[in-house]
Amino acid sequence: MEVKGRNLIEGVPRTVTIDDSEIRESLSECVATIVNAVRVALERTPPELSADISDPRHRPDGRRRAAEESGQADSRGDRLAGIDCG
Description:
- The chain is an alpha+beta fold.
- It contains three helices and four strands, in the order E-E-H-H-H-E-E.
- The chain has helices at about 20-45, 45-55, 65-70; strands spanning about 1-5, 15, 80, 85.
- The strands form two sheets. It has a two-stranded antiparallel sheet. A two-stranded antiparallel ribbon has the order 3-4.
- The protein is elongated.
């Protein structure tokens, strides 16, 4: 992948080619921190709420609405942490 930017030492535009392993390496620490934070949050979450979080019908991305329209949704978990998921 070609990445365009400015060489901070020379102050001129520059294009470099990087591969997926370099991108993966540069993001690995940040991703590990995020994964750890999610893990800690889920460990502190009550089991009944964890079950609702993992249920795709309760995600606010439209899949709950699709489940409702198909008649597969139930009334459990219509509100999650004060956010209207329906």
